[in-house]
Amino acid sequence: MSVRDLVYGVYEKRLTARLDRSRIPRHVGVIMDGNRRWAKSVGEQIATGHQRGADKIHDLLGWCEEAGVEVVTLWLFSTDNFNRPADELADLLRIIEGSVRSLAETGRWRVRPLGALDLLPGDFARTLKEIGARTADNPGLVVNAAIGYGGRQEIADAVRSLLQEQAERGTSIEDLAQVIDVEHIAQHLYTRGLPDPDLLIRTSGEQRLSGFMLWQSAHSEFYFCEAFWPAFRKIDFLRALRDYSLRQRRYGA
């Protein structure tokens, strides 16, 4: 073990010991950004960057379990990712499918695929739905795998679902316009039934949401980390929790 590893180990233990366990976020969302830039920085292929990023997910979920987090939402594939070059897109979807399968195979977590799944290749979409059903009764963390996800798309889908539901009940547009409120829309989001995220983490140094959980993040705390996602360490996660615990959440007040 190198001196650097020893120093990081000591620092990690110190951060862990000083965490305020009464102020751990219940729901953490993660924008796992920087796979391609990490690969370029170390002279690897883009697919290697995506695979290393996928491998990091198990580490993150273990850290979340240790800390007492209950729900984790991982942005694995955005609607914008459909614009990637065909060869990279094929590699990325293959790696994501393998990653979601590996999460399900642990038997530890409830894996909930969410997003516009019908935009994905048919076999992949069916696999995701089967995994969601098969892990629904698992103990432990709820792991939302956001695939084919975009915040604007989610809101549009929620409104469309709400309108279809009300139309089936015979509700007129005029009547719906009189009563519709934010709760009606929230009940049709991909994350319905789950708490909104308390903490959103984005890696790679970018300081924007890029459409991630636009509706649910109204009162979330944001933490932006310089590390590329494949290089994200436990101490980076612990720093995010420490930063969150020191904030005064005002919920718009």
Keywords:
253 residues; alpha/beta; Undecaprenyl pyrophosphate synthetase; 6-stranded parallel sheet; 9 helices; 6 strands; 13% strand; globular; magnesium ion binding; UPP_synth-like; magnesium
CATH fold-level label: Undecaprenyl pyrophosphate synthetase
Overall pLDDT confidence: 94
Q: What is the beta-strand fraction?
A: 5-15%
Question: Given the structure, what is the number of helices?
Answer: 9
Shape: globular
Rg over CA atoms:
19 Å
Read across the widest sheet, the strand sequence of neighbours is 3-4-2-1-5-6
SSE series: HEHHEHEHEHHHEEH
How many strand units?
6
Number of domains: 1
Structure explained in plain terms:
InterPro entries: UPP_synth-like (IPR001441), UPP_synth-like_CS (IPR018520), UPP_synth-like_sf (IPR036424). Its cofactor is Mg(2+). It is an enzyme of class 2 (transferase). Belongs to the UPP synthase family. Z-FPP synthase subfamily. By secondary structure, the protein is of the alpha/beta class. It is 47% helix and 13% strand. It has helices spanning 3-18, 35-41, 46-67, 86-105, 122-134, 151-168, 173-179, 182-186, 234-245, and strands spanning 27-31, 71-78, 110-114, 142-149, 199-202, 221-224. Strands 3-4-2-1-5-6 form a six-stranded parallel sheet, with helices on both faces. The longest helix is centred in the first third of the chain and has 22 residues, at 46-67. The protein is globular and about 70 Å long. The model has no long low-confidence stretch (mean pLDDT 94).
